[in-house]
Write a structure and sequence with these properties.
By secondary structure, this protein is mainly α. It has one domain (43-233). 61% of the residues lie in helices and 0% in strands. It is globular and about 60 Å long. 31% of the residues are buried.
Length: 236
């Protein structure tokens, strides 16, 4: 018998590890968390002004982060004076939530960086009367730092790369912010469960599409169709 064709038998430790990861996935699915407003919310933002767009997006993210982080923390320590989300408390601002989530390994490094770019762009538009437009610096530079998800999906659709050059920088930001938001939601649902189970924050995401929790599949599908739609709607 060709030994190279003999199926490798997993070790007891590997079986245990895979069992715990499966339990993490099952626990995430059992929560039945969903975000039915996600896609419609981001589509509705096409009518927002340039200045309002990042402000409204970050407000949505802030609300969802408070909800998901609150669910992951021990509720016995979030009552009364210990409410870390109330005014002037430790996690009152979106910046403090962002930093804490990253410090706890609830957000991947790239998600943290892209979310911080959204925050910085929001601050530029929200706190300055001379913010200019999305093609002005440093706004354009910050958008360029974010994951170019629109390029990845457009190429997968078999579309002409030249078409993307006809999409405004505002739409590019809109697409990248939508994907960043989906990543934030997914990671804040999955990472705390994986950490609590002792298998790490990424274990809850699965080992591939087939083993990913339902929330991972649903939000990625919605983000992909949303971004393609935004691009088609805004090719000039």
């Amino acid at each position: 018998m060709d030994e190279s064709k003999v199926k490798r038998q997993p070790s007891p430790g590997e079986i245990l590890w895979n069992t715990v990861k499966a339990q993490v996935r099952d626990e995430i699915n059992a929560k039945k968390i969903s975000f039915p407003d996600y896609k419609d919310f981001f589509l509705s933002l096409e009518s927002e002004s340039d200045r309002a767009l990042p402000i409204v997006i970050l407000s949505y993210i802030d609300e969802k982060m408070k909800e998901l982080m609150g669910a992951a923390l021990n509720p016995e320590f979030l009552k009364g004076d210990n409410d870390v989300f109330k005014a002037f408390a430790a996690l009152n601002t979106v910046h403090s939530k962002l930093n804490m989530a990253a410090a706890l390994f609830w957000l991947r490094k790239k998600t943290y960086e892209d979310l911080d770019m959204i925050r910085r762009i929001r601050n530029k538009f929200g706190h300055s009367t001379t913010a200019g437009c999305y093609d002005s610096e440093p706004i354009r530079q910050r958008i360029n730092c974010m994951m170019p998800i629109e390029e990845i999906l457009w190429k997968h659709e078999g579309r002409l790369e030249s078409d993307l050059k006809r999409v405004s920088t505002r739409t590019v930001f809109h697409c990248r912010a939508a994907m960043t938001t989906a990543n934030v939601l997914i990671e804040l649902v999955c990472a705390p469960v994986g950490i609590q189970r002792g298998v790490g924050p990424l274990a809850g995401l699965g080992d591939g599409w087939d083993t990913a929790p339902e929330i991972v599949k649903v939000l990625n599908e919605e983000a992909a169709t949303l971004i393609i739609q935004l691009l088609k709607n805004n090719i000039t």
